[in-house]
Design goal:
Helix content: 25-40%
CATH class: Alpha Beta
CATH architecture: 3-Layer(aba) Sandwich
CATH superfamily: Glutaredoxin
Largest sheet: 4 strands, mixed
Order of helices and strands: EHEHHHEE
Strand order of the largest sheet: 2-1-3-4
Oligomer: single chain
Length: 120
């Protein structure tokens, strides 16, 4: 499932095992928001999608990579550049912060879940 384009609505990049992701999903449902779900651990983003996601978030990849994951430490990503970080996330999607709500032109990280409400 690709990132949304114009007229595609909202897409939640979701990990159902994550409490913040579940809370964001529930908040969107409570608000009556129409959205699709992409379980990114099962359907990882491509490097190109990750670059586009960085643009929509308005943040460098380093600001939404999960530095606490063992794979981050084991991969020696502390000094990685943007391209190397996106390659790592594409190969190991657990490295991506979650949840992220994506629209056709913007995105927001649901930490806290209320952060995504700016896209509604």
């Amino acid at each position: 499932m690709p990132l949304p384009g114009p007229g595609d609505g909202l897409l939640l990049l979701h990990n159902p095992r994550c409490s913040k992701s579940r809370a964001t999903h529930a908040l969107l449902e409570e608000k009556g928001a129409a959205f699709r779900v992409r379980e990114y651990l099962n359907d990882p983003l491509t490097v190109a999608e990750l670059a586009e996601l960085a643009r929509r978030l308005g943040k460098p990849t380093r600001e939404w990579v999960r530095k606490g994951e063992s794979v981050y430490r084991e991969s020696g990503l502390d000094h990685a550049n943007e391209s190397e970080l996106r390659d790592a996330i594409a190969a190991q999607p657990i490295l991506m912060e979650r949840p992220i709500l994506v629209s056709a032109d913007r995105a927001a990280i649901g930490r806290p879940p209320e952060n995504v409400l700016e896209l509604l």
